[in-house]
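User: I'm writing a tutorial on reading structure tokens. Could you give me a worked example: one chain, its sequence, then its tokens, then a sentence or two explaining what the tokens reveal?
Assistant: Sure. Here is the example chain.
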Amino acid sequence: MGCHDNAELSILLTDNAGIQKLNKHYLKKDMPTDVLSFPMMDFNTEPRTPNSQLILGDIVISVETAKTQANTNDATLMEEMSRLLIHGILHLLGFDHEKGRKEALRMKKEEK
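And here are its predicted structure tokens:
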């Protein structure tokens, strides 16, 4: 994926109220969601050196929504949390499923 071993990210596990507050403040969407990603850099354009510390950004996951989705998707909570973490990391690496169907399919493939 173009990310070397010396990379860092932060993960916040919260509930629906917590993620809704962040979603409203940063994305102007007054509703809870399953995962939010806040990149620290534009992974596709900013230069990186092999020995530099790479801070990817922040990922926020609603455990409350993950539980609901796990039940709906016939998955364990750990499986759903893992899927959401991978989804969030892909966003930090520059993937964006909202850019269109082709990008959404590409992102779904990488998630698997």
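What the tokens reveal: The mean pLDDT is 87. The beta strands are 7-14, 35-39, 54-62.
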